[in-house]
Amino acid sequence: MSPTIFRYKGYRFFFFSREEKRIHVHVSCPNGEAKFWLEPVIALVQQYGLSPKQLKELQKIIEERNDEITKAWKKHFRC
Q: For residues 42, 46, 48 and 54, what is the CA-based torsion angle, rounded to 10 degrees?
């Protein structure tokens, strides 16, 4: 199961159920995909097919919407 948290400019922000305990978010688009940890700090874990410019934009969006992502995570996993 991979619930969508939100969509932004063709990007889908989501997570996989029970992939790992650390709060993180996946982002996908037709060109590629990335995974960011949200704790202890927001950090890129892995990516493929995305440009440095895209990754910078994605990190900014995640920083701005960190509370929303974290709230969705806790609601889904009942933390």
A: 10
| DSSP three-state, residue 74 | helix
| Strand, coil or helix: 36 | strand
Tell how strand 24-29 and strand 11-14 pair up. Answer: antiparallel
Question: Cα–Cα distance between 74 and 60 in angstroms, integer?
Answer: 21
pTM above 0.85, yes or no: yes
Over pLDDT 70: what percentage of the chain?
99
Tokens read off for 68 = 């929303």
Task: Tell me, rounded to whole angstroms, the distance of Cα 46 from its chain centroid.
Answer: 11
| pLDDT per position as a tens digit, 36-72 | 999 999 999 999 999 999 999 999 999 999 999 999 9
